[in-house]
Protein: Response regulator transcription factor
Organism: Cellulomonas wangleii
Amino acid sequence: MTATAEQAGTRSERQTVRVVLVDDETLVRVGLRLILGADPAIDVVGEAGDGLEAIDVVRRTAPDVVLMDIRMPRLDGLGATERLLTEQPDSRVVILTTFDTDEMVLGALRLGAAGFLLKDTPPAEIVRHVLDAGAGRTTLSPSVTDRLIASVTQRPRDERRTAARARLDALTERERDVARAIGRGLSNAEIASELFITVATVKTHISRILEKMPADNRTHIAICVHEAGDV
């Protein structure tokens, strides 16, 4: 059973962030369960040892966050992420892996992953990143952020800024307000509070922004805002 719109809409109101762990190494899953389970704001509701099993577990548990490894048997993390987000676009997939090649980082973000962390991230930081993802924020390890910035800075700065501003100019003033808030890392609930609108209205604005820019996900909106210098 897929997560319903009602389930997705109430995630920000829950007491805990529900998490599914996906990794082909049992010891890694045990360690993550111990790290995350120690925080009262996190509830580990399921585990999977490969991408195909992950899809089944997510369907059954409707978690807020899926912590996903990349290199796994049968179906890897990128393939599983693509299928999960096609089925359940409100899911928040955070990649947690040993590998941080440009292709993997950009590939995951293009698919709509909500974050990309390395396995050498300190435990307390993993907890913080999971909570941030559960709150609707995009979350990246510092080294991954550096790679992402490098990937979008290959064109001359003036050219990037002009192109980004042109994309923002296609938006209404309210849509630009929402885009700027996304660029600052705010969740839907935080945007609604700041702009004195409902979360449903925020989601409507985001859908229109994605269509008009065009952009594939919130990360791409944030990149555009930063390139335009409009934060």
About this structure: Residues 66 and 93 are 5 Å apart (CA to CA).
